[in-house]
Amino acid sequence: MKTKQLKQFFKATALAIALSSSMPTFAQTSDEVVAVVDNSVILRSDLQQNVAEAKHQLEAQKRPVPPEQYLEQQALEQLILRQTQLEQVKRYNIKADEKSLNEAVLKVANQSGITSLEAFQQKLDKMAPGTYESLRKRIAEDLAITRLRQQIVMSRIKISDQDVANFLKTPQGQAALGSQVHVIHARIAGNSNIEGVAKQVRTALDSSNDIAAISKQFSTNSVKVEGADMGFRNLSEIPAELAARVTPLQVGQTSELITARDGIHVIKLLERKGSEQKAIIPQYQTRHILIQTSEVVSPDSAKQMINSIYNRLKAGEDFAVLAATFSNDSGSARDGGSLGWVSPGMMVPQFEEQMKSTPVGQISQPFQTQFGWHILQVTETRQQDMTQEYQERMARQILGERQFDAELDSWLREIRNNAFVEIKDPNLDRKNNKTS
């Protein structure tokens, strides 16, 4: 198995592997450190477990198992890379919320036919005490790593307005938006002189839309001209090489000759229309006050402060004045706490839930998010046509996803190179053992 393939395999190793009763759980009685990564260590038992999981998966997929030393080296490298990410998770204080964690654990349970967390815990701990908690911890770490990757990697991806505009003009962009085109399509095939006939067909299409008459006029015993009015079609339904030629055409314009295996194609664009589906969404004109914990503000103090501000608001004091005076969100505090018009998906779930459930003009109860304690007020709501913004956001998402894997690999190499790593066992150090 090639190195790249094995790396991909290790990345894809499923957590559900822990469910298999045939998987050994290694005792910790005589453990040893095989590697030091920054402020953490990787134990021999960690490595043995990872190698066993990899073997189990490879055998289940009927794929060849590499030599033991090579497998151990690759497994250790993946553990090191995982630990470097967990060090970053600690640095940025990223944690999986309880709801997401329970859902992720339950999903693993469902894969083994178990429908409740309680039954799942009983099954795993019956296999070996502490197995459930170990799996739950691992899933929590994976969720945190995923959040870390999304935050860090997406912040490194730069997509300009021009990139978005250019993408929306491409067949892929138009197809993503559900754009439709009404085209006439002609194909010229034969044994000789098809290019000369194709040029004549193209000239005829410049001044006529009667493709049936044009096909009949230019078809001969040696050259066949087939044509049809294709009606409205989604660009995604048109072969990519033809869709690429349609996109830049103006209405009424005929394409250049398109050479393909089955002949020469000519396309004329008659009409174009975008998706008729509009993105009409609710928006909330919202303002808030944020109190964060800090080195000088304890969690209890922050809660007391937000409750005090809430009582003052209920007593009739001005929201904008209190926001400007006390809010730790400096960006909105300067504007009396105003966040402007807020669309669904812009805020963290807890904030959005409060925003949607608070009647216009009323003040929410104090509530907590990952950013601190909030009080919000919705001053107005509206239904807004966000079709263009939606299309641009979709384009940015598609472009971001295209760049994500490459940027992720770059970031992983950076944090791996910047991490302090000491491999205790010389046989596991790939620098000393070049195995292909």
Automatic annotation (TrEMBL):
<dbReference type="Pfam" id="PF13616">
    <property type="entry name" value="Rotamase_3"/>
</dbReference>
<dbReference type="GO" id="GO:0006457">
    <property type="term" value="P:protein folding"/>
</dbReference>
<dbReference type="InterPro" id="IPR050280">
    <property type="entry name" value="OMP_Chaperone_SurA"/>
</dbReference>
<dbReference type="GO" id="GO:0051082">
    <property type="term" value="F:unfolded protein binding"/>
</dbReference>
<dbReference type="InterPro" id="IPR046357">
    <property type="entry name" value="PPIase_dom_sf"/>
</dbReference>
<feature type="signal peptide">
    <location>
        <begin position="1"/>
        <end position="27"/>
    </location>
</feature>
<dbReference type="InterPro" id="IPR023058">
    <property type="entry name" value="PPIase_PpiC_CS"/>
</dbReference>
<dbReference type="Pfam" id="PF09312">
    <property type="entry name" value="SurA_N"/>
</dbReference>
<dbReference type="Pfam" id="PF00639">
    <property type="entry name" value="Rotamase"/>
</dbReference>
<keyword id="KW-0143">Chaperone</keyword>
<dbReference type="InterPro" id="IPR023034">
    <property type="entry name" value="PPIase_SurA"/>
</dbReference>
<dbReference type="GO" id="GO:0030288">
    <property type="term" value="C:outer membrane-bounded periplasmic space"/>
</dbReference>
<dbReference type="InterPro" id="IPR015391">
    <property type="entry name" value="SurA_N"/>
</dbReference>
<keyword id="KW-0413">Isomerase</keyword>
<keyword id="KW-0697">Rotamase</keyword>
<dbReference type="GO" id="GO:0003755">
    <property type="term" value="F:peptidyl-prolyl cis-trans isomerase activity"/>
</dbReference>
<dbReference type="GO" id="GO:0050821">
    <property type="term" value="P:protein stabilization"/>
</dbReference>
<keyword id="KW-0677">Repeat</keyword>
<dbReference type="InterPro" id="IPR027304">
    <property type="entry name" value="Trigger_fact/SurA_dom_sf"/>
</dbReference>
<protein>
    <recommendedName>
        <fullName>Chaperone SurA</fullName>
        <ecNumber>5.2.1.8</ecNumber>
    </recommendedName>
</protein>
<dbReference type="GO" id="GO:0043165">
    <property type="term" value="P:Gram-negative-bacterium-type cell outer membrane assembly"/>
</dbReference>
<dbReference type="GO" id="GO:0042277">
    <property type="term" value="F:peptide binding"/>
</dbReference>
<feature type="domain" description="PpiC">
    <location>
        <begin position="178"/>
        <end position="271"/>
    </location>
</feature>
<feature type="domain" description="PpiC">
    <location>
        <begin position="281"/>
        <end position="380"/>
    </location>
</feature>
<comment type="function">
    <text>Chaperone involved in the correct folding and assembly of outer membrane proteins. Recognizes specific patterns of aromatic residues and the orientation of their side chains, which are found more frequently in integral outer membrane proteins. May act in both early periplasmic and late outer membrane-associated steps of protein maturation.</text>
</comment>
<dbReference type="InterPro" id="IPR000297">
    <property type="entry name" value="PPIase_PpiC"/>
</dbReference>
<keyword id="KW-0732">Signal</keyword>
<keyword id="KW-0574">Periplasm</keyword>
